[in-house]
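User
New here, explain this?
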Amino acid sequence: LHRGALDDALRYADELERLGSRGYNEEAAAYAAALKARVKLARGDLAGARSLYAESAAIARARSAGWPRSVALCGLASVTLAAGDDVGSRAILEEALLFCGGVGLVRIDSLCGALALLSLRSGERDRARRVFAIVGAGAEDQADYYATFEDPSGALREATREARSLLGDQSPGDPSAVDLDVVLEAALGTAVTGLGVRQSFSSPARS
């Protein structure tokens, strides 16, 4: 899919879906829906992608499947923001940050950058500044393999770019020293404990 082989990706998603239905494997079923969502997005069907990402997230939530749930929530946030739904995307971004920040399977820079922009739009500049404090230098320019999972539409990275231009560059000197609990407390408006410091921006947990 990263190389544009959409038909091959769709066949693989169908195989995963069959595997999920035969073996009651919700993780395979959730990932199949997310993969189909990326194919829809690549073909220009934003509404279809959003529906499939929502389906994937619902399946993954039921089993607390870490990797497919991370992919589904990031994808759903990305396409919802791309659709111009600020209210809907804010709720999804908050859920994605709480979950993804805890399991540590994907980078959360663009999630924080997008939420910071939405906070700025609603007049919450101090909250935006605190949320953006975790965003690493160049996060909005990432175009690697991981970025296709973390922000398939590119909307989160574009929002991060806009937030940086409005807030000024405040990238942390030592990203690994940023307290993730503090950032998520600012993002969610509630106390979050036990997550510790953030992962390095350049080293996502999943290889």
Observations:
- The mean pLDDT is 84.
